[in-house]
Structure formats: C-alpha cells, structure tokens
Design a protein that fits this description.
The chain has 307 residues and is mostly helical. It contains 16 helices and no strands.
C-alpha cells in the first residue's frame, strides 16, 4: 500500500517565493537608474501636467496664489491666432527641414558616399558631420551671416545675375528650415549609410543583370530593403525638429513679428517673457501630443513593415 504525503504549505510555497526573490535581486542593480528616472523624468512630467491646469505664473496673482483653472489654458491657446500660427509654422518647419530636407539629402549623400572614392567619402563626411557637431549658437550665427541682406548667399546670387533679398526678413521660415537642414543632415546620412551597408551586393547585382537601371534599383530594391531605417530615421529627426529652439531663436527670435515663431519659441515667450507658466506648460503638452501623433504614425509604419 502506497502512502501519499501531502506537501506542506512551506514546501508548496517555496518554489513560487524563490523566483520572485530572485527577480528582486536581479532588479537591485537597476534601482538607482529607476529612482533617477522617477525623480528627473517622471517627476517633472507630472509637475508640468499639474501646472498646465493652473494659473501658475512668475509674477502677479498666479505667483502668490496658484489656482486650478481646468481647461482654461487650452481653450485660450486654441482660440489664439498666435498659437494657431505657431502650430502651422512648426508643421511647415518640420516638413521642409526634416521630412523632406534632412531625410532626402541624408539618403542622397549616403548613396553618393557608397559609390564614391575614399577621398570623396572623407571630404563629404567631414564637411557634413562638421556642421552637425558645431554648437547650435555658433551654427546659428554662421547661417545668419549667410542669409543676411549683405550675406554670402546674396553675393553668390548677384554674381550670377540673380536678385538677392533679406532672407531673414522676407522668408524667415525658409531660412531657418534651410539652416536646420544644413546642420542636421549628418544624422540621416549616418543612419542611411549604416542601413545601405547591410544590403547584400548580390541582390543589387542580380537586379542590374535583369536590366534594372539605377532609379529602378533604388525604387524597387534599395528603398524597400531599408524601409525600417527610413521610418526610424523619420521618427527621430521629426521629434528632434519639433523641439528646435536655439537655432531659430539665435537667427530670428521668431520674427520679424511672428513669421518664424514656432511652438517652442511661442511657449518660451508665454512662459518666461510674459511670465505665464501655466499657459506655457499647456502649450508644451500640446507639443508633446503632436510628437506622440508623429511617433504613432511612424511606429505603425514600422509594425506594418515587420508584419
């Protein structure tokens, strides 16, 4: 006769407690990083969300007596022509300088460097990356001199018989967009250079043997094979461009008037020039929402490509 001994509660519970304890032990080295993220990332975000729903200010009643105002800051923003103008200019700036400019030029330079000699690769790489590593303020002053009424661009246009203009006054959003392209293209070039290096040469050689020309190979072989890199690059440069502040501020300060006042500059003006911290923080949350929408679009593209 066989006797079955029921496991004790301690014996039954030991296997479940041991893995849980092991997980806690493995998480101990991560605890300082988790604490730092909570203090310096999650904490400010929570505080900003709180401030966006108050009348918080640097001076006046909102400085001494902070009150909850609900959605008033957001209603004020979306009923303001200046805020609508800032959103429009932000989207134009992002479209021209990131989605079209940096993305397309970065891919073109990566393709050029892939087919060129070592001397050309070194020269182009040094020139493009040199613009990227320049401090933002230094780059802004260089480009202000380039686009100025008596600047280098107008000198070159006049030399070939074309009329010049004061780009920073007549077309400031175009000027700052071109400046951001010049400064930020290096990142896209590096991303695409890495992606192109992963394409097997045998595939392109097979397409060439089948009679596909350069443009057909680019459209039907190269681009489909680096789609994930394209989506990743677009997401990163879009989010970076949405938050560009120093370059535009140093070149135009958002002017003349509000012709180049993107959301970061409008937010800064409202929060620190006009001391409306609550209103400025509400604008920052709108910027965060716009960035989240772009991110979801690109992530959807990445997921569809993976599927």
């Amino acid at each position: 006769m066989t006797t079955t001994v029921a496991p004790t509660a301690a014996a039954a519970g030991a296997p479940s407690r041991r893995p849980r304890g092991a997980k806690l032990v493995r998480m101990l080295p991560l605890s300082p990083a988790i604490v730092l993220m909570l203090v310096f990332l999650a904490g400010p975000i929570i505080y900003c969300v709180y401030a966006a729903f108050t009348n918080m200010a640097l001076t006046g009643p909102g400085a001494a007596n902070v009150k909850f105002v609900g959605l008033d800051n957001f209603r004020k923003a979306f009923s303001s022509n200046a805020f609508t103008n800032a959103i429009w200019l932000t989207l134009v700036f992002t479209l021209i300088s990131a989605i079209i400019g940096q993305n397309t030029l970065g891919l073109g330079l990566a393709l050029l460097m892939r087919k060129s000699t070592k001397i050309v690769r070194n020269f182009v790489g040094t020139a493009v990356i040199g613009a990227w590593v320049l401090p933002e303020v230094v780059a802004a002053y260089l480009l202000s001199a380039f686009f100025n009424d008596n600047g280098t661009l107008n000198v070159m246009l006049n030399a070939v018989g074309l009329p010049g203009q004061d780009w920073l006054y007549g077309a400031p959003i175009i000027a700052v967009s071109l400046a951001n392209i010049w400064r930020g293209t290096a990142f896209s070039m590096l991303v695409y250079s890495a992606a192109l290096s992963e394409i097997p040469k045998e595939i392109e050689e097979s397409a060439e043997m089948d009679g596909a020309g350069g443009w057909r190979r680019l459209a039907f072989v190269t681009v489909p094979m680096i789609t994930r890199a394209i989506m990743t690059n677009l997401m990163l440069i879009t989010l970076q461009t949405l938050s560009v502040f120093g370059l535009i501020y140093a070149m135009t300060r958002g002017g003349p008037g509000t012709k180049s006042q993107t959301l970061p500059l409008y937010m800064y003006e409202q929060a620190f020039s006009f001391s409306q911290i609550g209103y400025g923080t509400a604008i920052a949350l709108v910027m965060l929402a716009i960035g989240a929408v772009f991110s979801l679009i690109y992530l959807r593209g990445l997921n569809s490509e993976a599927a």
